[in-house]
Amino acid sequence: MQISDVLSLDCTKSAVQCTSKKRALEMISEIVACHTGQDATELFECMLSREKMGSTGIGNGIAIPHARMTSSDHAIAVLLQCEQPIEFGAIDNRPVDLLFALLVPDAQCKEHLKTLSCMAEKLNNKGTLKQLRSAQSDQELYSIIVNG
């Protein structure tokens, strides 16, 4: 599966003003709700529940929040580039400034583990990270993550 299969330009946001992990998850939920017709509060609760099991902050200023959706038939991703890094409880205790969220239908969880793995690998590339952090627009951010 390609990242462009789950991530669209209008789910890619650069220079987001965000002050907390909770607010970042709320923003992601609102974006997903607009595209799926799902309830933003319900999506937020799903992601919050997942975070309570352990932070999805994977280190190096990156978080990959993810959750299951009950009433959708396709996965959707959101990419946020925060203007200022936020505290996220990451495994290396560093604040997070790049979030790649993936919300998946209950029935498709196994297939999307590959997508998460692919994204983690991409975000592990120092060159790609540098480009993502210096992107000046949603379009630039989207192009880097999809093509880079």
Features:
single chain, 148 residues, alpha/beta, 6 strands, 43% helix, 27% strand
Question: How would you explain this protein's 3D organization?
Answer:
- This protein has 148 residues and is α/β, with parallel strands linked by helices.
- The chain has five helices and six strands; from the N terminus they run βααβββββααα.
- Strands 1, 2, 3, 4, 5 and 6 form a six-stranded mixed beta sheet that branches.
- Strand 2 and strand 3 (62-63) form a beta hairpin.
- Helix 1 (21-36) packs across helix 2 (40-53).
- The longest helix is centred in the N-terminal third of the chain and has 16 residues, at 21-36.
- The protein starts with 6 loop residues before the first strand and ends with a helix.
Global outline: globular
Number of helices: 5
Mean pLDDT: 91
The unreliable regions are: none
Distance between the termini: 15 Å
Strand share of the residues? 25-35%
The tally of strands reads: 6
Q: Give the SSE string.
A: EHHEEEEEHHH
Give a quick account of the main beta sheet: strands, pairing sense, barrel closure. Answer: 6 strands, mixed
- From the helix content, strand content and strand pairing, which structural class follows? alpha/beta
Helix percentage range: 40-55%
Radius of gyration, taken over Cα atoms and rounded to an integer in Å: 14 Å
